[in-house]
Amino acid sequence: MSNARVHRAPNTKIKVIMGNMLNVMDYKQLSSMDNLNDFTTYLARNTHYAAAIPVDCDYDSIELKIKEHMLAYFDKLYYYYIDEYREFFLSVMMRYQVENIKLCLRAVVRGEDSSTVYKQRIHFKTYPLIDCNRLDNVDDVGEFIDRLADTKYHDVLKRYTNEDPSKILFYMEMALDRLYFEQVYESMIKLDKRDRNLNLELYGINVDLLNIQWIYRGRKYFGISAEELFNFTLNNGFRYNYKQLKEFCYMELDSFKLIISQGAYKSMFEGQEFLMERNMEHYLFNLLDEYGRRGSGTILVFIVFMFKMEYEMRDLFTIMEGIQYKIPGIAQFLVRDLERRN
């Protein structure tokens, strides 16, 4: 059976779901609201979130319900994929498990109540991923890591157990992120040629942007050494190879910024520096329709859908924060440009 036929059913389902995602008018309506009750009511009555969010949903639970609604869509697609495509699907979904582990780890390091973290975690219903309930009621980092003994996360975290307590959380979170990208890459290169090449391209661009952000912020705001910067950069980017990344980490910060500002990713440094992450997401968002077209008949359609759902979720959280803290002009902080019909 050809790949186009394999992907026909899930891609058709994805097309229907994407047709119901929020549009420009929805964002304009939501970002103009001045209280969270109106925000929640609009989502519950006028959008695809109606099935997940009751009109009287309280603020403390709405973020989790939005996340779980997104995962429910992914649940519906899981069984369409088999063999190397299911492996790839699961490696991509691993990011949400990594986020759960980070939440639990932060609670242990900071001495927080694990019951609070439980309410923030995404609870998987379909995927054969680890049950994070095993990480509840842990007293120290050593025990936390021991409870992951039968998982791929154990050895990655174990090597940092003797680090300075003030840095241990940073190192472990960076190691988890690096593991996630390594797993995605390893599963991606097993795909058939067209699926593999298109996904590697979009993956590589994402890696490039994350590395730019990491190197710049690490040097400017946290004083991280060039050696440490390089150790935590991600491999297999689209434009920058091993040698270039190493040069970036060791060169003067102004020189690094100048090189990036003159290249394909110059928009990373447009506007004020606190907008760098938004600029990165905006850059990727504006590529998604193109890659969706190029990847028609491949699993890249799912990856584009996943990115779009993720960005929709983040924009909703940004709007909620703007309403809660009375931040003017919140639309400028969204991934989506409301003056363009993406």
Write structural notes for this entry.
The protein has 342 residues and is mainly α. Among the domains are: 1-81 and 299-342, Orthogonal Bundle (Topoisomerase I, Chain A, domain 4); 94-191, no CATH class. The protein has 15 helices and no strands. It has helices at 3-19, 24-31, 36-46, 59-78, 83-110, 114-120, 141-146, 153-158, 168-188, 193-222, 226-231, 242-250, 253-261, 276-294, 300-324. The longest helix is centred in the middle third of the chain and has 30 residues, at 193-222. It is globular. The mean pLDDT is 93.
Question: How would you summarize the topology of this molecule?
Answer:
Elements: H1 3-19, H2 24-31, H3 36-46, H4 59-78, H5 83-110, H6 114-120, H7 141-146, H8 153-158, H9 168-188, H10 193-222, H11 226-231, H12 242-250, H13 253-261, H14 276-294, H15 300-324
